[in-house]
């Protein structure tokens, strides 16, 4: 017997957990300007609205809006460039430093056992936003791939993103100068 989805067709592989609170992002997240890259728009927002964990001189750390695991964040250059080879020496250095700091902070806050760190270069390689380089830092724990994602095809996140952002931001060292920021935002 075939299971039908809401449209009457075959059911998708993954089950759905309905999250109506995300509709505010969907409706409000559609930029109206000529340049609608979310990684270019986020630095103009305040930290809480944009889920920004930390701002540096050339890069910023932001929570992934659709995380693989709790604490999944991305390190993103302010400049709109698609490829790692487009970064300046200073951007490469700060991207690396922010990645190290992200791992230390997430480990201290959540006790992560390991990390997946990487970037998908180009849409053919799986980049969801291929035009603006970003590096993922995904915390992992022993047993985090349990029956829910494997059998239930569902991810369970134990904390809302705003709470995760606040925890990580509070632990992030303030030793870097701020880059582009929204009104009254940035690291001093």
CATH topology: HIT family, subunit A
Overall outline: globular
Top-tier CATH class? Alpha Beta
Q: Any idea what the CATH superfamily is called? A: HIT-like
Say how many strands there are: 5
How can the largest sheet be summarized?
5 strands, antiparallel
* Contiguous runs where pLDDT drops below 50 for at least 5 residues: 29-33, 146-154, 182-188
Strand content: 5-15%
For the record, the CATH architecture stands as: 2-Layer Sandwich
Rg (C-alpha, Å): 18 Å
Spatial separation of the terminal alpha carbons: 61 Å
Structure classification: alpha+beta
- Name the average pLDDT: 78
Describe the structure in your own words:
The chain is α+β, with helices and mostly antiparallel strands and 188 residues long. It has a single domain (35-171), classed as HIT-like (HIT family, subunit A, 2-Layer Sandwich). Helix content is 27%, strand content 13%. It has a five-stranded antiparallel β-sheet. A hairpin with a 3-residue loop joins strand 1 and strand 2 (59-63). The protein is globular. Mean pLDDT is 78; it is low at 29-33, 146-154 and 182-188.
């Amino acid at each position: 017997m075939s299971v039908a989805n809401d449209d009457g067709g075959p059911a998708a592989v993954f089950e759905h957990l309905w999250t109506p609170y995300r509709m505010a992002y969907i409706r409000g997240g559609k930029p109206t300007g000529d340049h609608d890259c979310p990684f270019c728009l986020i630095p103009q927002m305040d930290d809480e609205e944009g889920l920004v964990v930390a701002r540096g001189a050339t890069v910023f750390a932001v929570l992934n809006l659709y995380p693989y695991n709790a604490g999944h964040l991305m390190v993103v250059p302010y400049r709109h460039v698609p490829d790692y080879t487009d970064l300046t020496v200073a951007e490469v250095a700060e991207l690396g430093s922010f990645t190290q700091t992200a791992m230390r902070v997430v480990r201290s806050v959540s006790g992560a056992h390991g990390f997946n760190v990487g970037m998908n270069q180009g849409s053919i390689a799986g980049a969801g936003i291929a035009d603006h380089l970003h590096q993922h830092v995904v915390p992992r724990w022993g047993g985090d791939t349990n029956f829910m994602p494997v059998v239930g095809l569902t991810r369970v996140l134990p904390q809302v993103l705003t709470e995760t952002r606040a925890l990580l931001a509070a632990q992030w060292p303030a030793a870097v100068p701020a880059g582009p920021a929204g009104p009254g935002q940035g690291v001093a």
